[in-house]
Amino acid sequence: MSDFCFRGENVGGNRDSATGTKCGRWNPTTEQVKVLTQLFSSGLRTPSTNQIQKISNQLSFYGQIESKNVFYWFQNHKARERQKRRKVDKDVNCSENSISINSFTQTHFTQLYHVSEPKRVIETLQLFPLNSFGESESKNKRIHGSDCGENTMFSYTEEEQMDHPPLDLCLSFM
Amino acid sequence: MSDFCFRGENVGGNRDSATGTKCGRWNPTTEQVKVLTQLFSSGLRTPSTNQIQKISNQLSFYGQIESKNVFYWFQNHKARERQKRRKVDKDVNCSENSISINSFTQTHFTQLYHVSEPKRVIETLQLFPLNSFGESESKNKRIHGSDCGENTMFSYTEEEQMDHPPLDLCLSFM
DNA sequence: AGCTTATGAATGAACG
DNA sequence: CGTTCATTCATAAGCT
């Protein structure tokens, strides 16, 4: 199943612009998404302006990107994780509720806004290696992990094209 | 309309035995679509989280469904109606506003992207909730202290009787 | 059977 | 921040 759904991501050389693809909005490459996701997984949620700048700067190697893209990405990612959590929280009950669902039986709004804040991140996300991390597995899941497996394993190989900067994000962050 | 034309209304689980895949995407039953459409026709455009939950809960009787399905359904339905409307409108609004904002943190983008509001569907059918005040739930007073009144009261009169549960949506909504 | 349409799902961008 | 809009991708259903 083709769950991976990168739309037009271009690993090799992202068409800068002014080509066939309309550059209406930012289309992140898989590398960019991967890095951003890892940063998020590392606990980074609301990067400062400075961090945004640096992230954007680093990611610009993989393709066209602006600071605001990074900004929005984190905003959206954070918001959606929470939103999803809220929506999925209690739909666990299957379709076995016959009738008699009164209005007051809706007492399972578990206000558990406990999103388990990842301890405010360490000031030095030295989480990812300086070099090409092999992306063995870990957090490669799609943002919107659905109920059905959601494998979403990016099946692209990157060994052959690691001529880009070794992602020294952790260095330039602080 | 073929009434009993469940397209996978397997209560046990929505799985496509043909391919073995667990679940591709939500396949609403005719009943579900009918109810959703009616709700939309009644004026409901953007149900709140609670409403989504209740709708989903009710519709789960007819088949597998999740909250996010309801959410997406309304999003898409509304968006597509507007989209079509826009196409018909044939508005050659070549508003070419190149966003030259690099400092998003500075201030909010001053973009006057004001689309023609499609006259907000008739929202006048706020008859009245059939049930009394849902004191138990009512409003979760946010710290924001903003006014409440997010209750999209609507009442759709279901004339035709169904051979399934009495669809007390209007009851459980509020 | 392939193409087209309809629609579920996802997400970047922006608003209040 | 939470919510909403707009655009796009992916896929099931429908049509020729």
From TrEMBL, chains A, B:
Residues 21-85 bind DNA. One of its GO terms (biological process) is plant organ development. Signal peptide: none annotated. The lineage of its organism: Eukaryota, Viridiplantae, Streptophyta, Embryophyta, Tracheophyta. PANTHER family: WUSCHEL-RELATED HOMEOBOX 1-RELATED (PTHR45940), WUSCHEL-RELATED HOMEOBOX 7 (PTHR45940:SF3). Belongs to the WUS homeobox family. InterPro entries: HD (IPR001356), Homeodomain-like_sf (IPR009057), WUSCHEL-like (IPR044555). This is Homeobox domain-containing protein. It is found in: Nucleus. Its main location: nucleus. Residues 19-84 form the Homeobox domain. GO terms for molecular function: DNA binding; DNA-binding transcription factor activity. CDD domains: homeodomain. PROSITE patterns: HOMEOBOX_2. One of its GO terms (cellular component) is nucleus. It holds the Pfam family Homeodomain. Keywords: Developmental protein, DNA-binding, Homeobox, Nucleus, Transcription, Transcription regulation.
